[in-house]
Design goal:
7 helices; 4 domains; Rossmann fold; 5-stranded antiparallel sheet; alpha+beta
Length: 480
């Protein structure tokens, strides 16, 4: 009688150094050589398998559970930054003589782009600390987040690098991540890059080195995302080109900006990206430049964007400047805080708009001018006047031939977005224009010459210690 309980084992092939092929009740058993095991380990990553790796390959890093996944090392680690212990990744060394690739955050979902395009002031960088150094990255071409400012051509690469310096785009990314962390939301990988050149007109900018480099940057972003097995999505494209344009008339600048936006939309479509959100700070000039055709032309964008998704996050007169007319370090952070609010709102289909003035017309009383506007909330004339706009709240008349002085500005009690501006005598003139935060005399207090006291009810406590408000955009309105 057969003993069904007996174990079945045997040897089919034996070598001098031991059994090679055997069998038991579960099937065949093979003992593989060290060289075969090494070959399997090499092949598994390319096939999408995971292979355990000694964390020592990362250097002296507090890391654990390191494994190789294709072209990447993936691991848990406790690294510097506000993100806390979480999962990271690093590209496998390409060659023995190459420098070690950068560690970046291993995140869920898409790789988000925060890009910008414009003139030299957008290329300003600083050595400010980043709260999320592994989540905010840039193109892996050693040019940094500000690129080469149009002095050389970008190269194609899917490599991702961490930042060696900060731009306004990286500050915006940092602020978005800070808010997400506070709300226990997912922390994405944000790819930042600014492409600029020294063009002197908007037409030259649209046809110059900056746009050629921007085209390559978009392709590099998409390739970098694909290298991670993720899609690419762009949170915003910052447009920053106003005072750098020293030749264009106002209408030419407006047409040029629309042309740039159309070019970017077409470029995104070619790379399978959605139509982007365009953001900007409404340039209010400097301490000694308070008026120009281009500064005035921005007002058209505030209410007539065509088919573009464009938003002014804040007016420039609320931000301090240095002696060269550039935003101070605190002001750069405040700009980023306001822009991040606009970007987060608009990308979640929530509204964001600064108060904008649309029409100035005479009342029955010839000494009173009604100024009509629109905003997300009721207009507020700030009694504390933190920007030192004066009793006229930032308003003045251009082309007045009667020497009228503004003696009172108030919000109409019957319409929350109408202002009543009272003068000591009727303002008169064939080209009478009511200006807000535009055309003011030069200043020496570290702020732009233009200023105002009109805002809505929004406020934000800045990391700089100041309270930020959503101030009204500058305007020049013919009086009807």
């Amino acid at each position: 009688m057969q003993d069904h309980g007996a174990k079945k084992r045997g040897i089919l092939l034996r070598a001098k150094n031991g059994d090679v092929i055997g069998f038991d009740e579960t099937g065949l058993r093979m003992n593989l050589s060290d060289s075969v095991i090494e070959d399997i380990q090499k092949r598994l990553p390319a096939l999408g398998g995971h292979v355990a790796v000694d964390p020592a390959v990362l250097g002296d890093v507090d890391a654990w559970n390191l494994r190789q996944d294709g072209k990447w090392f993936v691991f848990g680690a406790h690294l510097p930054g506000a993100q806390g212990p979480r999962q990271f990744r690093r590209r496998v060394q390409v060659s023995d003589d190459a420098s070690a690739p950068d560690i970046i955050a291993d995140t869920a979902g898409a790789v988000y782009g925060l890009l910008s395009f414009g003139g030299t002031r957008r290329a300003v960088t600083a050595n400010e600390p980043l709260s999320f150094p592994y989540h905010v990255v840039t193109t892996g071409d050693d040019l940094g987040p500000a690129g080469a400012s149009g002095t050389q051509a970008n190269e194609a690469t899917d490599v991702i690098q961490r930042l060696t310096e900060q731009t306004r785009d990286s500050l915006i990314a940092n602020e978005i991540l800070r808010r997400r962390l506070a709300d226990h939301r997912a922390l994405p990988l944000i790819y930042t890059r600014s492409e600029t050149d020294s063009s002197a007109s908007i037409i030259a900018l649209s046809e110059g080195a900056a746009f050629d480099n921007f085209r390559q940057t978009v392709q590099n972003l998409c390739d970098a995302a694909r290298s991670l097995g993720k899609p690419a999505k762009v949170l915003s494209v910052g447009l920053d080109f106003t005072l750098e344009d020293v030749t264009s008339r106002g209408p030419d600048w407006i047409a040029g900006m629309h042309r740039v936006m159309h070019q970017i939309i077409d470029l995104f479509a070619d790379n399978g990206l959605r139509k982007p959100l365009f953001t900007a700070i409404f340039d209010a000039g400097t301490a000694d430049i308070s008026d120009s055709p281009v500064l005035r032309a921005q007002w058209d964008f505030a209410w007539n964007k065509g088919d573009h998704d464009h938003v002014f996050a804040a007016p420039g007169y609320m931000f301090a400047q240095d002696a060269f007319g550039r935003a101070t370090p605190d002001a750069r952070l405040q700009m980023a805080e306001m822009e991040s609010c606009a970007i987060e709102a608009r990308n979640s289909d929530a509204p964001w708009a600064c108060p904008v003035l649309l029409l100035a017309e005479r009342e029955n009383d010839p000494k009173v001018i009604r100024c009509r506007g629109e905003g997300m909330g009721a207009f507020v004339l700030d009694k504390d006047d933190p920007l030192n706009a004066g009793e006229a709240c930032g308003f003045l008349f251009e082309g007045d031939e009667n020497g009228a002085k503004i003696i009172d500005v108030r919000v109409d009690s019957k319409d929350r977005n109408d202002l009543l501006i009272t003068c000591d005598k009727p303002p008169k003139g064939a080209d009478l224009t009511l200006c807000y935060a535009l055309g003011h005399p030069a200043s020496d207090d570290g702020m732009p010459a233009n200023r105002g006291a009109l805002r809505d009810g929004f406020k934000l406590q800045s990391a700089t210690g100041q309270t930020l408000y959503r101030w009204a955009l500058p305007a020049a309105l013919p009086v009807h």
